[in-house]
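Ticket 4471: requesting a sanity check on a complex prediction with nickel (II) ion. Repro inputs:
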Amino acid sequence: MYSITYLGHAGFLIETDGVRLIFDPFITPNELANKQIDVDSLQADAILLSHGHADHVADAERIARNNSGATIVSNYEIAVWYESKGLKVHPMNHGGKWSFGWGTVKYVAAVHSSQLPDGSYGGNPGGFVVRTPSGSFYFAGDTALTYDMKLIPLTCGRQRFAILPIGSNFTMDYMDAAIAAQFVEVDVVVGCHYDTFGYIKIDHDAAVAHFAEKGIKLILPEIGKPFVI
Ligand code: NI
Ligand code: MN
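Returned structure tokens:
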């Protein structure tokens, strides 16, 4: 079982099997989230960062400093950048998998770009396949639809759900995301990376209906309200 709290934009807190995982926190600069989510009360064992853009890493340092036990998991370049700030990190790169005490993480391909907020090189962007005793799920990060997504069920087995960007302009749109869900072979998708900015506003009903036509449930989560998958 997964307890999932949407932190806004592409940010999530996922609690499962006694572990608390935070993905891509962008809360304090996000007007849609910064009243619903108290960043300083967030607890994490690991903070997973898909790439270096500010709308994915804005609150990572703050959360890491509030949680001295938390490890920042990202690509090599981003991990080294946070390590130089004195934070605990675990560097990865595409195709690599690591067993943490609580589960395994595989860093998988994403088609996007990556630059850290100070202009430093942010390596290549990625997504994560996370396996814990409860099962496995896929967090895509910012990405276009890519045929590589077919490798996820092939190499990582069945996924309980996928978290996919659906807002278009900077990532795939919800129509491509529905194809991504078919490539990953999931029937439950949590949508993210929509509505935060003018460029990525979407029609919620149309998106949900489009997925439903393919027999896939699209969840458009409410910020700060935990739900269970
Ligand atoms: Ni991005
Ligand atoms: Mn983004």
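Notes from triage: The two ends are 6 Å apart (CA to CA). Leaving this open until the requester confirms.
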